[in-house]
Amino acid sequence: MKYNLLGAVSTIALGAAFGIGTHGAAHAALTCSGTMSNGTCTEIDHITATGQDFTNISIPVDYFSASNVGSGPIPTGTLSSVTYSFGDMVHVSGTLTNSGSGTATGSFAVSINQYTFAGGTPSSFLSPTQTGSAGTFHSALVTLTPGQKTPFSTTKTFTSGTFNGTPPSQYANTGQFDALVNTLTQGGASSTPANFTASEATVETAFVTITYNYTTPPPPPPPPSPTPEPASMALLGVGLAGLGAIRRRRKS
Q1: Range of 87's domain?
Q2: Which residue from 209, 110, 90, 202 is spatially nearest to 157, judged by alpha carbons?
Q3: How many domains are there within the chain?
Q4: Cα separation, 88 vs 84, whole angstroms
């Protein structure tokens, strides 16, 4: 893709242009905390790509299960609500070179940074699909003489707002469900005059944060005191009457 930055025209894709990269997922277990009446279970799941964008890559997310909060002092919980957010971080580093015949000033700039999160299989996570984007960002401006080189590094993180997952029952199950992520990142070297070139590498991380809010039922009331049966009461009455008769005879 061609675009004009600070007078320079660059064609670069911070993705496929870097060749085949590798995806690495880190799946975090739910961490729960709360009281006897309510609490939360939260996890942050992320996946990292080196040298490429994400294309229909899934991030596994744990369902809420009552057993997650069913040990220790916290009794089994019931899911009451769900909130989630997601985002993307792009780190670009490399070397800027002044390939021209005169002194120039410029940087490496990322002009496009977008993500799309959608429901996976089963598709109960996100509906409708959520998208986000970040504006142009760049490394520090540098001034280079002809043939001079300098390293550069720039990082951008952008996140969504917080969304409510409704109904919560969609998130209460066993096992995992997927969040699908797609990204598009493009950028290149720019300078005035247009003399800079760049070698660059990217590391991109997409992440999902999900929070389950749960309530716990109150403890059951203590069992009631046993109520005497009618037959037992009758026997007790006969016994008391007999004792009264014996006492009257002794007095007489």
Answers
A1: 2-251
A2: 90
A3: 1
A4: 14
